[in-house]
Design a protein that fits this description.
This protein has helices at about 30-40, 40-55, 60-85, 90-100, 100-135, 140, 145-165, 165-195, 215-230, 245-275, 285-290, 290-300, 305-335, 355-375, 380-405, 415-440, 460-475, 480-495, and strands at about 450-455, 455. It has a two-stranded antiparallel sheet with strand order 1-2. It has a single domain, classed as Amino acid/polyamine transporter I (Up-down Bundle). It contains 18 helices and two strands. It is an all-alpha fold.
Length: about 500
């Protein structure tokens, strides 16, 4: 999308990137892992996805979780290697700009990621608000769309204040919220496996060749891609991390592996206890699909302890919301510093050392989107959530390709470089883009999701429509930010990596 000639990275980096005003060295490995895990919302993600995966492939849900993890792991290698060379809080925006030019970087690395994040923030706030009202015994309000929307807006406001006041405070909050989630999930799993009558887990549940049809397999894997999404948010704080060239990459791999173990254990335990039938507590029952943990919690743990699982799902959504605000504000900071957004996004609070304007702006954007979608129809919000899958596959795929392209000059230096910088990221990128195409084809069915227009599913319109909207906005801004769109590769190179 840009006529400038491609560039390749120099073999090594010799000095850290210039500071953007953030508080460097304030985040360690543990905090990075916590932020990465929290952004995925593990309790919420497995609760609302496992049932749909089981409906698609039955007892092979663990196999789908494993296969869905493969492109995520391959993409994580791409993020790690790129972060070593260019530890910039703009992550995909910077890397895509360096690889494919400023237009691609602005649209695919900037707009797509931010639109997906703001949409996720609107959805997470709504889920957190609904659960919170239910836990407080306000069932009548929990079923009222206006009350839920108002509560969700208040949650966004509270989370924005925490993010505004500093990353150290945010990390402390995440420790508590993440610990509750993991304790609840592993406690639920252990109790389910110990219940009388629970099935003995079978290796056949992990058979990658046991799927009856490619369609069912593809649908299940695409669902699994969604539940792993979000770990890359930890890389947006790389400039505030100790040993920023290595710690974020390690945290990315650790967080994805922890997610895999957590999801597999929970899925195996749920299938062992409830089975995959379409009646009663079976995971194949459509009535249980929207929230498996709420359906299985009382019979597994009892009513009192089941409340703890519901609390875990609630705080899961809230903690992911916090990480989204932290990550998105730093991504827009980087875009502004590189001349791709107004200078206001580069403002740093003098005491808290956080992107003050960007943090408030992203919180407000999520609240406005939530209000707009709620006003139009709850169905629109549901379809907007489903459309996030398209955007995930798109920008993850482009990042994998960017890694292989940028490091192409280093691939003959060693087998390590060939695999970790070339083969694995390229494979992950192609898998992600294949998932994008497959998703787009499936979403052309008007029955996909809850809405349709002119015979086209609303999920496809929202997903592809957001990309087209970004293209229109980019074209409108090219004149205002002409230096970036003319010399973007030079700008991100100068501010993120020192050439040999």
């Amino acid at each position: 999308m840009n006529p400038d000639p491609p560039q390749t990275l120099a073999p090594t980096t010799t000095s850290p990137p210039p500071s953007k005003g953030l508080r460097s060295g304030s985040v360690g490995l543990l905090a990075s892992v916590a932020l990465g895990l929290s952004s995925v919302a593990p309790a919420y993600s497995i609760a609302v996805t496992l049932g749909f995966v089981t409906m698609a492939v039955g007892h092979l849900a663990p196999a789908a979780l494993l296969l869905g993890f493969v492109p995520i792991l391959l993409t994580a290698f791409a993020f790690r290697e790129l972060n070593k060379e260019m530890p910039d809080c703009g992550t995909t925006f910077v890397w895509t700009t360096r690889a494919f030019g400023p237009s691609s970087g602005w649209l695919l690395g900037g707009w797509v990621t931010q639109f997906a994040t703001v949409t996720a923030m609107a959805a997470l706030s709504q889920v957190g608000a609904g659960y919170l009202l239910g836990l407080l015994g306000l069932d009548s309000l929990a079923s009222d769309e206006t009350a839920v929307a108002v509560t969700a807006a208040l949650l966004i406001g509270a989370i924005t204040v925490i993010a505004y006041r500093g990353l150290q405070l945010a990390a402390v909050v995440q420790y508590v919220l993440l610990a509750l989630q993991l304790v609840a999930l592993f406690g639920f799993g252990a109790a389910a496996l110990a219940r009388h009558g629970a099935l003995t887990p079978s290796l056949a549940w992990f058979d990658p060749f046991g799927f009856d049809s490619f369609g069912a397999f593809a649908k299940a894997v695409l669902l699994c891609l969604y539940i792993y999404w979000g770990w890359d948010a930890l890389l947006t704080v790389n400039e505030e991390t100790r040993d920023s060239e290595r710690t974020p990459g390690r945290a990315a791999l650790i967080s994805t592996l922890v997610l895999l173990v957590t999801y597999l254990f929970t899925a195996v335990a749920a299938i062992s206890f409830a089975g995959t039938g379409t009646a009663g507590l079976g995971l194949g029952n459509a009535r249980n699909a929207a929230d498996v943990l709420s359906a299985l919690g009382p019979p597994v743990l009892g009513t009192a302890l089941a409340k703890g699982v519901q609390l875990a799902v609630c705080v899961s959504a809230i903690s992911a919301l916090l990480t989204c605000v932290v990550g998105s504000s730093r991504a827009t900071l980087s875009m502004s510093v590189h001349g791709a957004l107004p200078r206001a996004f580069a403002r740093i609070h003098p005491r808290h050392r956080t992107p003050s304007f960007g943090t408030v702006f992203m919180g407000a954007a999520a609240a406005v989107l939530l209000a707009a979608l709620t006003w139009l129809s709850p169905a629109f919000l549901g379809d907007a959530i489903l459309s996030i899958g398209l955007l995930i596959a798109l920008y993850y795929g482009v990042t994998g390709l960017a890694c292989a392209w940028l490091f192409r000059g280093q691939l003959r230096r060693s087998w390590r470089d060939a695999f970790l910088k070339g083969v694995l990221p390229l494979a992950g990128g192609l898998m992600m883009l294949a998932a994008f195409v497959r998703s787009a084809v499936d979403m052309t069915d008007p029955s996909y999701g809850s809405t349709s227009l002119f015979g086209v599913g609303g999920v496809l319109l929202l997903g592809i429509g957001s990309v087209l909207l970004g293209l229109v906005v980019m074209l409108a801004l090219r004149h205002r930010f002409r230096p970036f769109f003319r010399d973007g590769r030079t700008a991100v190179t100068r501010l993120t990596v020192t050439e040999d």
